[in-house]
Amino acid sequence: MDATAARDALTRARSETRELLRSLGAEIDGIVDARRDSNNDDEHDPEGTTLAYERSQADALRVGALARLDEIGGALDRLSAGDYGRCEVCGAAIAEGRLAARPWASRCITHA
Ligand SMILES: [Zn+2]
Fold first, then answer.
1. What is the pLDDT of residue 1?
2. Ligand 1 center to residue 98 CA distance, Å?
3. CATH architecture, domain defined by 3-111
4. Judging by beta carbons within 10 Å of its beta carbon (0-12, 13-18, 19+), is residue 92 exposed, middle or buried?
5. Residues 49-102: pLDDT tens digits?
6. CA of 29 to the centre of ligand 1 (A)
7. 107-to-9, 41, 75, 97 alpha-carbon distances in Å
8. Ligand 1 geometric centre to CA of 79 (Å)
9. How many A from CA of 64 to the centre of ligand 1?
10. What is the 93 CA–ligand 1 centroid distance (Å)?
């Protein structure tokens, strides 16, 4: 993957991840509102339990998306530094197919 294609892919992935974070933020707000509107007695309220579960799922997705943004930022830095596409452990070139699937990958498949 050449630098221009890599930058395009990373920039696109970053926008998509930011969009996901925005929608997750809205979803979490919605869950909080739903909880407020429902019976506050979570422990004995089946709906409260479901909402707590949904909330923890949305939080987990958000944590994953934030980590992805870090990885994308790191990849953009490596691109600027001319180190893009090299494994940070062994220095070998990361396979094209792997970079196509995960343009933010910082390690070869052996060290992933
Ligand atoms: Zn490696």
1. 73
2. 12
3. Up-down Bundle (1.20)
4. middle
5. 888 898 899 999 999 999 999 999 999 999 999 999 999 999 999 999 999 999
6. 41
7. 17, 47, 11, 13
8. 17
9. 23
10. 8
Q: Two tokens at 76? A: 């953009």
What are 46-62's pLDDT values in tens digits?
Answer: 777 888 898 899 999 99
How far does residue 18's CA lie from ligand 1's centre (Å)? Answer: 29
19 CA distance to ligand 1 centroid (A)? Answer: 31
Residues 6+ apart with CB under 8 A from 98: 105, 108, 109
- Tell me the CA–centroid distance for residue 105 and ligand 1, in Å: 11
CA distance 84 to 104: 9
Cα–ligand 1 centroid distance for 110 (angstroms): 6
Q: How many Å apart are CA 110 and CA 81, to the nearest integer?
A: 23
